[in-house]
Amino acid sequence: MERETATQDVKQARPVKRDPEGVRRDILTVAMEEFSQNGLSGARIDEIAARTRTSKRMIYYYFGDKEGLYQRVLEEAYGKVRGGEMELELEGLDPVAALTKLCRFTFDHHRRNPAFIRMVMIENIHHGRHMQLSQTIGGVNQPAIEALQGVLKRGQEQGLFRTGVEALELHWQISALSFFNVSNAASFSAIFGDTLFKPGGQETLSQHVAEMVLRYVLRADHISLIGETG
Q1: Which run of H or E residues covers position 58?
Q2: Which CATH number belongs to the domain containing residue 218 in this structure?
């Protein structure tokens, strides 16, 4: 009986082997929070290790160093937003519905993921250096322009969208409208109050961002299509 109990105690004392991929995901999730809250210089690897029940040595094994982890977090963040865009399946929608859906998705994604916006702001403080060093961020983001170009082309071929609209510029406009809503929420609220940042205000802004973009893209004789897609 004593031998059986001792065997059970040894089994319980053995550390549970963790899934390497799961460990990497946990590190990236916690690192996103740490970097987005404290920036590259202020983030602490010790804190990330403690919260993920790993070690600094393990983190460096997976990601090289602190800057390598930061760069990987950036890549992961962009990968998630672009993955969400792919799931919209815009090519199966009519052009007006597709552009509306993309605008609403971008606005809603950004407001629900403020850590992503903070990461982009931090990387701009570093003049985009880590993004330029990345071998994947460019490739991950290019399909966003190509998908938008496809929507524009279909709309122009159907006589709905005016010619001369560039996909890259339109992407910039959609991003700008959606980004400001998060990046400047604190300062805007301090000056003008937080009405626009309450649930009702956010829903209205999301709708109006899509309408503004459509008014820019639609031919004058098709403006009446705004709102028909919900």
Answers
A1: helix 56-63
A2: 1.10.357.10
